[in-house]
């Protein structure tokens, strides 16, 4: 446990973290996880965070050493995609029982489980996750993994991030540490080259990295390891031979990027594949870093040519949505704007941003938001569901973009909603992804159900009974019919 | 006699179980103005919450005492108290349902004592809110046990004890967790059609039915009234659905003398007949024409449907009572149970499952035992096994996250059985394989020397 505590202190101290730079030594030591309020807390635990980061490694068997809930209530719940192996989707847990706890059989059961998996599935590696209960009863997963690795001649990687040590974000970082301690650098590729890169923090949700990878292919850049999305164990193990790293979801794996730079001299930058300008900037930066590390500078010109071509196509596609989306009001409720370039692209086609959460934003971010928003009042730290519901019910936005947690607040307020978090089913990365995002916004806002669900039943509105029911044949007729019916515009809530 | 086979693997592969506290929370979610509270780490709540949302497509009230490492070692009473007070002031619930987890149970505290202290110390602040405790460590049981424990705890805590004046029309109903929203609505209609007044505990049809309330509600927006739980002792009879509900029914009987009638399953013509006869006997009313009509429809469905069931091999993985319900249904239609897998060995009902053996296990076991079956029957997580085996999957139970409307699927009494017959028959019809010469070749299973086996050329 004490080594785990040291590790936690270490990741809290992360010098590359933007938030950390603004803190003094004392505040940094306290760490970035705020104490939770019992009865008013939300969000996943450290184990959750660790599993999120590692589980998309597709050919690894992920074994959760825990009573049932940790894995049984949470498996097969994320939309990351694999282009090959499917073992990562098979769920393995020791399902620790009362008897195991009382008799102290946890470690033995874990060892036996590793053997069973090795024999039945022969994976290239097994990752073993500790959890609250198995940590509490003192099971030493590092020792068990070490012994199993020797005995079975197989990498068995301990992931020491029991839920009660902190938040999901802390778990993300501890997962990065596990890769550093046990995986990266343990295999030597025989084909390392000057155009090899790593992408960190890309989860390949709904396969969205496949919207981006062809761009690298066109430039002759090879993704040695995408961690974790669609990764193979050996790719991760030989990630230390890449020449440059791009880190995508910066809060999750920043410690990993920085330590890889320290250890293997791989320069990194933070970028994003969300939005057009960010995608271009990412390509540019990667090429620049590769050149700095010895690649032929001609790649810079080729990169610019590709960017120019792809941007022109994407902007042209987006422009087609302007007549349909101009003036529409978007509420961003994501816990922090993850990509400015998405906001930029939305505004470029005439969409207004009417509010955003700044819970995870830096002071710099907040300044940018102020410039974008018409009304500063709509910058909020965190909005209680009731307030958010009230705001949406008053129809102060045409659509809310958020994660699943607030989905039903929008839907119950009868306001269009689009999932932009990890559970979503649409790929939004790269140039095509941005077009897809705008297409989905258009589809959501203009779905014909909104008029239906907002209209009160005819018997609650005496005049309406005498009117013709709104016809769906002509749009103007519908709007007029609706106006007559509800005494307001079709876009407003129908109230008698 | 069915053999119950214990789990012998150290690894659960693709778990069948959802956790015990999740089952308890589900029961509390069937109470009006309720707020379930997991006494554990934030992850315990977060995982269960996400799973509920994936299944119901609804905002689900569920909170956590947010135990961290230090609190776990020092003891969680303070966290429990703070959580209860916070919930009380922020959401003003009628009921807070505390579900313990493996984390807090492993440390082993006196939760009942802690709660008694909190109730006493904070009596004024907590006025108007019942706080109920279910001991539900994740390392034992599954949904069934958790659900039953929560109902038992509510009756034990809330129901007024002692013999009371009985209301001749009032029927207490304690449904098992596997009854859907549609099942509960249908049960209520059926009971009311005899002029009786049902009190259903828990009643998910008021809270998890997916409606659009016209305001934001932070607790459950419907369900059994806490006051109705208090008055359960005035019912003339209690009807219990599912063997796992025997414990709460016995407690109610012990506390108030209300006798109970047990229905281990409500699927199938015979079970429905028994249920309807009981209602008729209690009420003294004849069976309404509409009910007779439903029965005739089921007879017709049996006639039309049985062609599709005869000789079919069915592999089922479900919690004990649901396993029994489904297995008896399929066997009653002429199918055989090729594999039966369940979550725990704690239920007596397993002895009555019409199968050679019941494996305590997981979906990995279902996949191994179910090879060669015609149909897999389990929750959505069975989709991987179905894909690997190339066998169609019928989704039942919890969680069902890749199909909409599972809560509105009727599975009990005449109408529910009729619907089940059609659903299964349609799955078979949709997955029918066209006949091929290879599949029908009378020599296909015979061992014979290579030179005699028909060569590819011979088929031309």
TrEMBL record, chain A:
- State the family named in the UniProt similarity comment for this chain: Belongs to the NifD/NifK/NifE/NifN family.
| Key words, A-Z | Nitrogen fixation
Record's SUPFAM superfamilies? Helical backbone' metal receptor
Q: Which InterPro entries does UniProt cross-reference here?
A: Nase/OxRdtase_comp1 (IPR000510), Nase_comp1_CS (IPR000318), NifE (IPR005973), NifE-like (IPR049939)
> Which intervals hold domain Nitrogenase/oxidoreductase component?
45-443
This protein is called Nitrogenase iron-molybdenum cofactor biosynthesis protein NifE
Q: Which top-level group of life is the source organism from?
A: Bacteria
Pfam families this protein is in? Answer: Oxidored_nitro (PF00148)
Query: Which pathway is this protein engaged in?
Result: Cofactor biosynthesis; Fe-Mo cofactor biosynthesis
Q: Which Gene3D superfamilies match?
A: Nitrogenase MoFe cofactor biosynthesis protein NifE, C-terminal, Nitrogenase molybdenum iron protein domain
Q: Does the keyword Cytoplasm apply?
A: no
The job of this chain, per UniProt, is described as: This protein may play a role in the biosynthesis of the prosthetic group of nitrogenase (FeMo cofactor).
TrEMBL record, chain B:
* Pathway assignment: Cofactor biosynthesis; Fe-Mo cofactor biosynthesis
Region described as Disordered: 438-460
Its domain of life? Bacteria
Keyword ATP-binding among UniProt keywords: no
Domain Nitrogenase/oxidoreductase component, which positions? 19-428
Q: What does the UniProt function comment say about this protein? A: This protein may play a role in the biosynthesis of the prosthetic group of nitrogenase (FeMo cofactor).
State the similarity comment: Belongs to the NifD/NifK/NifE/NifN family.
Name of this protein? Nitrogenase iron-molybdenum cofactor biosynthesis protein NifN
Print the organism lineage.
Bacteria, Pseudomonadati, Pseudomonadota, Alphaproteobacteria, Hyphomicrobiales
């Amino acid at each position: 446990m004490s080594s785990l505590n040291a590790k936690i202190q270490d990741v809290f101290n992360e010098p590359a973290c933007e938030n950390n730079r603004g803190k003094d030594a004392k505040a940094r030591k306290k760490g970035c996880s705020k104490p939770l309020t019992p009865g008013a807390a939300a969000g996943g635990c450290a184990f959750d965070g660790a599993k999120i980061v590692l589980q998309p490694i597709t050919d690894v068997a992920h074994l959760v050493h825990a009573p049932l809930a940790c894995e049984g209530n949470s498996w097969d719940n994320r939309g990351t995609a694999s282009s090959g192996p499917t073992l990562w989707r098979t769920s393995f847990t020791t399902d620790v029982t009362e008897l195991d706890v009382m008799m102290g059989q946890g470690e033995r059961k874990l060892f036996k489980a590793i053997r069973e998996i090795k024999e039945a599935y022969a994976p290239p590696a097994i990752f073993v996750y500790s959890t609250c209960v198995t940590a509490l009863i003192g099971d030493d997963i590092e020792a068990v993994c070490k012994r199993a690795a020797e005995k079975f001649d197989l990498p068995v990687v301990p992931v020491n991030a029991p839920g009660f040590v902190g938040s999901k974000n802390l778990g993300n970082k501890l997962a990065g540490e596990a890769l550093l301690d046990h995986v990266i650098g343990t295999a030597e590729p025989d084909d390392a080259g000057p155009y090899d890169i790593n992408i960190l923090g890309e989860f390949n949700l709904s396969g969205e990295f496949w919207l981006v990878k062809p761009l690298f292919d066109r430039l002759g850049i090879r993704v040695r390891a995408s961690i974790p999305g669609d990764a193979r164990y050996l790719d991760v193990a030989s990630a230390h031979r890449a020449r440059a790293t791009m880190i995508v979801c910066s809060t999750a794996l920043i410690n990993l990027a920085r330590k890889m730079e320290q250890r293997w001299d791989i320069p990194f930058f933070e970028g994003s594949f969300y939005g057009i300008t960010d995608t271009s900037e990412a390509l540019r930066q990667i090429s620049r870093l590769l050149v700095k590390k010895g690649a032929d500078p001609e790649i810079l010109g080729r990169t610019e040519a590709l960017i120019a071509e792809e941007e022109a196509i994407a902007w042209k596609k987006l422009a087609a949505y302007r007549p349909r989306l101009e003036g529409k009001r978007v509420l961003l409720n994501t816990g922090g704007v993850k990509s400015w370039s998405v906001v930029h692209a939305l505004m470029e086609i005439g969409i207004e941003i009417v509010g955003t959460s700044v819970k995870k934003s830096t002071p710099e971010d907040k300044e940018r938001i102020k410039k974008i928003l018409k009304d500063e009042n709509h910058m909020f730290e965190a909005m209680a569901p009731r307030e958010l519901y009230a705001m949406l019910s008053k129809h102060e936005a045409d659509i809310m973009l958020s994660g699943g947690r607030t989905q039903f607040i929008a839907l119950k307020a009868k306001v269009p909603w689009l999932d932009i978090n990890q559970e979503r089913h649409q790929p939004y990365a790269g140039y095509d992804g941005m077009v897809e995002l705008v297409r989905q916004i258009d589809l959501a806002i203009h779905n014909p159900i909104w008029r239906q669900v907002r209209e009160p039943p005819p018997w609650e509105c005496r005049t309406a009974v005498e009117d013709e029911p709104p016809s769906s044949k002509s749009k103007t007729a519908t709007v007029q019919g609706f106006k007559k019916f509800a005494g307001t515009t079709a876009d407003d809530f129908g109230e008698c | 006699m069915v053999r119950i086979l214990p789990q012998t693997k150290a690894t659960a592969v693709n778990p069948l179980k959802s956790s015990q506290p999740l089952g308890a929370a589900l029961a509390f979610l069937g109470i009006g103005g309720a707020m379930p509270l997991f006494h554990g780490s934030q992850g315990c709540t977060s995982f269960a919450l996400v799973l509920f949302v994936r299944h119901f497509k609804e905002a689900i009230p569920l909170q956590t005492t947010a135990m961290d490492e230090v609190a776990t070692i020092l003891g969680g009473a303070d966290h429990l108290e703070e959580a209860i007070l916070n919930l009380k002031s922020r959401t003003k619930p009628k009921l807070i349902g505390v579900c313990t987890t493996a984390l807090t149970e492993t440390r082993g505290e006196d939760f009942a004592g802690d709660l008694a202290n909190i109730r006493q110390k904070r009596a004024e602040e907590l006025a108007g809110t019942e706080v109920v405790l279910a001991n539900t460590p994740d390392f034992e049981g599954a949904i069934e046990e958790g659900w039953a424990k929560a109902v038992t705890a509510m009756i034990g805590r809330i129901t007024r004890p002692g013999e009371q004046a009985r209301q001749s029309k009032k029927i207490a109903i304690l449904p098992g967790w596997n009854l859907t929203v549609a099942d509960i609505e249908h049960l209520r209609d059926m009971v009311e059609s005899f002029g009786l007044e049902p009190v259903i505990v828990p009643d998910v049809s008021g809270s998890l039915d997916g409606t659009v309330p016209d305001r934001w509600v932070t607790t459950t927006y419907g369900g059994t009234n806490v006051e109705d739980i208090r008055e359960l002792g005035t019912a003339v009879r209690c009807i219990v659905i599912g063997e796992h509900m025997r414990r709460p029914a016995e407690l109610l009987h012990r506390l108030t003398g209300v006798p109970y009638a047990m229905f281990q399953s409500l699927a199938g013509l015979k079970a429905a007949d028994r249920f309807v006869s009981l209602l008729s006997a209690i009420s003294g009313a004849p069976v309404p024409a509409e009910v007779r009509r439903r029965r005739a429809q089921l007879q017709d469905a049996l006639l039309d449907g049985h062609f599709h069931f005869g000789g079919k091999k069915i592999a089922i993985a479900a919690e004990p009572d649901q396993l029994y319900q489904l297995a008896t249904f399929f066997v009653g239609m002429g199918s055989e149970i090729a594999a039966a897998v369940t979550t725990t060995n704690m239920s007596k009902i397993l002895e009555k499952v019409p199968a050679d053996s019941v494996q305590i296990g997981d979906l990995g076991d279902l996949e191994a035992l179910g090879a060669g079956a015609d149909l897999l029957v389990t929750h959505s997580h069975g989709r991987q096994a179905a894909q690997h085996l190339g066998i169609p999957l019928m989704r039942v139970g919890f969680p069902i996250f890749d199909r909409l409307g599972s809560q509105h699927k009727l599975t009990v009494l005449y109408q529910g059985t009729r619907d089940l017959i059609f659903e299964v028959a349609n799955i078979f019809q949709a997955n029918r394989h066209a006949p091929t010469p290879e599949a029908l070749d009378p020599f296909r299973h015979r061992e014979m020397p290579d030179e005699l086996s028909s060569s590819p050329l011979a088929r031309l």
